[in-house]
Amino acid sequence: MSQKKFWKTIPLAQLNKEQWESLCDGCGKCCVLKLEDIDTGDVHYTDVGCKLLNCQTARCTKYAERKKYVPDCVILTPSNLGALNWMPESCAYKLVHESKELPLWHPLMTGDPKSTITAGQSVATRVIPENSIDENDLPDHIKKW
Fold first, then answer.
1. Which of 19, 39, 83, 116 places its Cα 20 to 30 Å from the Cα of 94?
2. Each residue's pLDDT tens digit in the chain (145 positions)?
3. Residue 44's domain spans which residues?
4. Residues 100-131, buried b or exposed e (16+ Cβ, 10 A)?
5. Domain assignment present for 134
6. 130 φ, ψ to 5°?
7. How many domains does the chain have?
8. In a domain, 137, yes or no
9. Beta strands 53-54 and 32-36: pairing type?
10. Considering the entire predicted model, what is its pTM?
11. How far apart are CA 13 and CA 3, in angstroms?
């Protein structure tokens, strides 16, 4: 264990920046384009990454200034987690918010920053950049992560 399960003892709103950022497992699932069914409200993930997503590493290339380049990028906060129905089921922020356990492959559990990729839980090398397809073709790229 790389840290002493701070996420179990400290409320999300009281985490320091380092603790907050370490909750992210780096899967990149929140950074793929999603489609919402207007009739059912179901959210469908695609294998198309945001224009800022490095498709090889599943990391944002402009993380600190992402809102400047992608104005509708949602910055996670303790207060907005409950309203984000599109967050992946495996997301540590969502899991902690719902008082659930982190998956055993999470870097905070393994001490290995690459464990998300090793466990097959990352979109790294499995997505294409959004500028490589026509927006009308997005439904052809729906993927179950």
1. 39
2. 445 899 999 999 999 999 999 999 999 999 999 999 999 999 999 999 999 999 999 999 999 999 999 999 999 999 999 999 999 999 999 999 999 999 999 999 999 999 999 999 999 999 999 999 999 999 999 999 8
3. 6-124
4. eebbebbbbbbeeeebbbebebbbbeebeebe
5. no
6. -60, -25
7. 1
8. no
9. unpaired
10. 0.90
11. 18
Quote the tokens at residue 23.
């909750």
SS3 sequence, the chain? CCCCCHHHHCCHHHCCHHHHHHHCCCCCHHHEEEEECCCCCCEEEEEEECCCEECCCCEECCHHHHHHHCCCCCCCCCCCHHHCCCCCCCCHHHHHHCCCCCCCCCHHHHCCCCHHHHCCCCCCCCCEEHHHCCHHHHHHHECCC
Q: Are 22 and 108 in contact (CB under 8 A)?
A: yes
Q: Is residue 133 part of a domain?
A: no
